[in-house]
Amino acid sequence: MKKVNKICCIGAGYVGGPTMSVIANQCPEITVTVVDINQERIDRWNDEDLDKLPVYEPGLKEIVASNRGKNLFFSTEVDKAIDEAEIIFISVNTPTKTYGKGKGQAADLKYVELCARNIAKVAKTDKIVVEKSTLPVRTASAIKSILQNTGNGVNFEILSNPEFLAEGTAVEDLLEADRVLIGGDETPSGKEAKDILSSIYEHWLPKERILQTNVWSSELSKLVANAFLAQRVSSINAISALCERTDANISEVSRAIGTDSRIGPKFLNASVGFGGSCFQKDILNLVYISRSFGLQEVGDYWEQVIIMNDYQKRRFAEKIVSTLYNTVSGKKIIFYGWAFKKDTNDTRESAAIYVADALLEEKAEIIVYDPKVTEKTIYADLDYLGTRSPEENRKLLKIATNPIEATKDAHAIAILTEWEEFKTYDWSEIYDKMLKPAFVFDGRRLLFKDEMEQKGFQYYKIGQS
Length: 465
Ligand code: UDX
Ligand code: ADP
What we know:
Elements: E1 6-10, H1 16-26, E2 31-35, H2 39-45, H3 60-67, E3 72-75, H4 78-84, E4 87-90, H5 110-122, E5 127-131, H6 139-150, E6 156-160, H7 170-175, E7 180-183, H8 188-201, E8 210-213, H9 215-245, H10 250-258, H11 279-292, H12 296-323, E9 332-336, H13 351-361, E10 365-369, H14 375-385, H15 390-396, E11 397-399, E12 412-415, H16 421-424, H17 427-433, E13 439-442, H18 449-454, E14 458-461
Helix pairs in contact: 1-3, 5-6, 9-11, 9-12, 11-12, 12-13
């Protein structure tokens, strides 16, 4: 089997950055180069100040610090890295299409296609090309056809190696992966390519956790794994609404069903709704391919997971409005958290964006505090929705750097992300600063109802009456 000396990854984002840093760390004899067309991103990956890395993940900066400049490099020299590498990972963004056929559902593959064309143009030796981004089924065959028809006559083996890392625990997930999935052709050269990629992961994972499949299975499994996880969140969120109407408590229900070993305890936390770059996109892809194969009912079935999630976000915003005497106009509402979950600075599809949007439509004044998300990102998220002009967004929504001071004369606090630090706050001090009655809307079930009520708050928690 061929020995791997150099690998390259196109795309230095949330997937490419952490994955390649871990590979470099575990495989000291392999040179890993991460390239991106975005100069600013690469500069931040190379920044002396490790707090400026573009991706925040626990444990990441330590790994970058100990490998960068040795066998881990970040660069904008895309062509050079492609030319030198034996294995090329494609980790570019695949947003949901905002135009044309499949608008709002299908993934936009333009970045992947540009990447493939670039590889075809530059490659002078045989390469293994690995699709790493979250991609809809059949992308590998599209990449293959581009490479085989436009390349310089060299041989390309295309593999699908979907990522299963969850943000906030990316490093841990990569080091302790439940499984690694490698899909490729069943031909002798396809099998060899799968073995070569396996050998990289075998540096730190037992062989039985590396599953080799055909390309379709690998690509589809990625979508299905996320669809199943998202479905659990939507299922428990559906029950949270029922709990609020009855005397059932969602924590007790979650525990009761989670102890059934056939169901298990994970992904049963009721919340204001799931976010992140994968769940919604992957399910929409599943809906899209199902329908494109004429399987209307299958598409409808999975779409309901998204409909439930949208309902949960809307329901939370409506709860705030109805509780604050049916008007939030001119009222000061503090958002604790903007990221789609704790321990990440990623905000893609975060529930906070949609809750803020709904409240801004009611003319609320929002002040956002998030320990890791920048002001620029928060405004960009809102502007992207296009509901209001950028000027109006900046007029109605402000950013706080001091979460305690921000609560002065506030009508309500809404908890949108489960950051641990929110639990450590002196909530009595916050109570004193706020207007009375002081409301807290806990979209993450982070705090204790009894304690909050003892302190004087009017406290609402998702999933409890
Ligand atoms: C997900 C997959 O878990 C991962 O394997 C990968 O394929 C990428 O997509 P990620 O989006 O990083 O990872 O986060 P995840 O931990 O799965 O959470 C997704 C969303 O669901 C978050 O907004 C989270 O807060 C929410 N969630 C999760 C709940 O609301 N309740 C839960 O019990 C679990
Ligand atoms: P993900 O969560 O999938 O990692 P990100 O958006 O965080 O997604 O990262 C994708 C990265 O890919 C971005 O930094 C983007 O600049 C980069 N990228 C997109 N197209 C290309 C390309 N043709 N060549 C190099 N980098 C690219």
